[in-house]
Amino acid sequence: xxxxxxxxxxxxxxxxxxxxxxxxxxxxxxxxxxxxxxxxxxxxxxxxxxxxxxxxxxxxxxxxxxxxxxxxxxxxxxxxxxxxxxxxxxxxxxxxxxxxxxxxxxxxxxxxxxxxxxxxxxxxxxxxxxxxxxxxxxxxxxxxxxxxxxxxxxxxxxxxxxxxxxxxxxxxxxxxxxxxxxxxxxxxxxxxxxxxxxxxxxxxxxxxxxxxxxxxxxxxxxxxxxxxxxxxxxxxxxxxxxxxxxxxxxxxxxxxxxxxxxxxxxxxxxxxxxxxxxxxxxxxxxxxxxxxxxxxxxxxxxxxxxxxxxxxxxxxxxxxxxxxxxxxxxxxxxxxxxxxxxxxxxxxxxxxxxxxxxxxxxxxxxxxxxxxxxxxxxxxxxxxxxxxxxxxxxxxxxxxxxxxxxxxxxxxxxxxxxxxxxxxxxxxxxxxxxxxxxxxxxxxxxxxxxxxxxxxxxxxxxxxxxxxxxxxxxxxxxxxxxxxxxxxxxxxxxxxxxxxxxxxxxxxxxxxxxxxxxxxxxxxxxxxxxxxxxxxxxxxxxxxxxxxxxxxxxxxxxxxxxxxxxxxxxxxxxxxxxxxxxxxxxxxxxxxxxxxxxxxxxxxxxxxxxxxxxxxxxxxxxxxxxxxxxxxxxxxxxxxxxxxxxxxxxxxxxxxxxxxxxxxxxxxxxxxxxxxxxxxxxxxxxxxxxxxxxxxxxxxxxxxxxxxxxxxxxxxxxxxxxxxxxxxxxxxxxxxxxxxxxxxxxxxxxxxxxxxxxxxxxxxxxxxxxxxxxxxxxxxxxxxxxxxxxxxxxxxxxxxxxxxxxxxxxxxxxxxxxxxxxxxxxxxxxxxxxxxxxxxxxxxxxxxxxxxxxxxxxxxxxxxxxxxxxxxxxxxxxxxxxxxxxxxxxxxxxxxxxxxxxxxxxxxxxxxxxxxxxxxxxxxxxxxxxxx
Length: 932
Description:
The protein is of the alpha+beta class.
């Protein structure tokens, strides 16, 4: 087919129907008709847009190039041999390297931006065929952090990078938001921006580089954007602002501000801080704007040298007369519909009015009064057909057999427009009328003045089984916030290229179902908007949370939007704060959020030209206004902020006015939150888990874990606790659902990790084994000591097994810890009839024998028991009662649940008795054994 020279691409040429052979022989004479009239008589045929595209739209490499010889500069423009070019742009205290024409030469534009050893590659591509017209510019942004950039692989089962992580989605939004306002209306070629991190040095963050790289790539491409953009990060370290700080510097920074804009205005700001005042934040914005201006100025030379011609001729706007027709049809009804205060009735009225306009302009036709009808190019004109049989002779005579068509009065032909154009124009006209109503009348759609905030109502303790809950309602926007508390197992794991933190102990999840706006839609994984709004609310609440040492819980906040008419993310901040208080989280303070709007050009609507700032904007004011500026914080400062602009930037004075007005609005919202009915509980829910934090010696952690984790698993099974978490620094966290299981696990862990002290008394201890020279007693799980046969009873025993059996229980006292850490116990020291006269000073200096004692050692220990003690060994100031009798009065009764430990420490009034007891017990030469 390709070899056939008759093959034709596109619409077929018009052909006349076949005629009989006779008519060809007897052809009538053709009249002489002027050429201009001939063209007008032919039916106009306008092919679809796919056939009407210019040459440069069908061939990417030929876009915007005139037909000429392909040499020199034209060859470079055509993309046959792009020349590599690089430039260094100063940013802050260093330079970034921008390279183009070396990689990705088949894309519309591609750049590599290098900062240190961090490299970000960004490309821009356009579709050859324009998409259907819409009110949303068809641009998609893809950002991916390759873990190979830092010499790592994914920690999951699949080692290939797959679905975008939340961190990557947030950076996609940072790239998209400042670029979209610079795109012209009427450009419908789908644009895709792809950005990858190819190298990461762990020092220079790639997110701010990605914003700048996308701005440079779009400026070099054929996209007819109006302004070049750049992005920077601003940090505040030691009260000094730093442009594009390193990751180490950001650890000490009090501010994390991302700013993007042009050489003359601000397009996007987003950041988080720790109650920073408005004036300090404005100074940071001013520093960031100066840095962005210098980058944009340096980009101009690169664009002039390497930039491609812009596809300005691809911009298609609705007919200009269509705006006047829409206003003529719906002027009065549109004014009445915009005065309806409630969202749903107003939306239905506008939808009905839109259907009416569509019906008139696309079906019935609209005739302009007192004017001749125009012929739109999109419609095939019903005109006379230039046929061979219908010919008028020059002299006005008509041949026989011809049909004479008499001239008649031409009726007006309906003027028809495309449905898409009518919808686009109706939306723009609606926005225009809404803005005019706000500026001229000083009243918004719901009747408020520009400074007024919608009515606020809040309710806590809504869900009985949740650990904390709150329902926050502001006008027609409503958020149901729920708090769940847990241990580290509930923490969110982080596996990003930049973030070094492995676990997040606090996270907020935002859900925006279609039902909250009364619509039917797809529900599934969170979209980019939900992820972005959730992160904004999360970062707004994070500064008020207690530290992990003060509150050792993992905190999860869920915000479900049940109604929405604007500012749902700020409602999540307010509802989340109340839910945290209801869950018993000891917050540092309360925070609230508010969204600010803007009508920039007020002179065209009868104003004085001063920008009009709107507090607590609704959904229609967000869609029709020029700004969406969200600010969260308390009375003293700001914790989070986010600004999106629908026009090509705003100035610092406008931003200052918006911040000051937002502070007044936050104070009002905080006051209304205090009126919550019922108020937050501020106590830990009875359904929340109990977490107990213990501190043990780091070398004792292994005793809790055991071989292969067997010991800690046995403790969990025995006590019924949910989890036991150990750290290398000796921190042990026990999570339990009830207090009894928590106390049992505490006792076991305390026994495993205790440090024995001479004088400690252990009650109800079990005999684990019996040897000829004594018994081995378990004073704690895994800890045993030797009670020598001489310390078992005040009377002489030949063999220990004659009086004791394995499994019996006794009370013992720790009387000695030798240099090997082995424990010597005494039962005789706790007997009321024990007498110190039966010990000998000779054995006071004797050392304990080894475990494997010979028979001779045992005989020596027996003979030593029979020795008497001289009167010099008894203290002169001893009382009438024996030391054993005095000690026995201090012993607490044994616990029913198990071994009870009572540490009888030396005090001033009892030091002598302990000294006498030690003298008596040290006379016996025995052996000690320790296990565990």
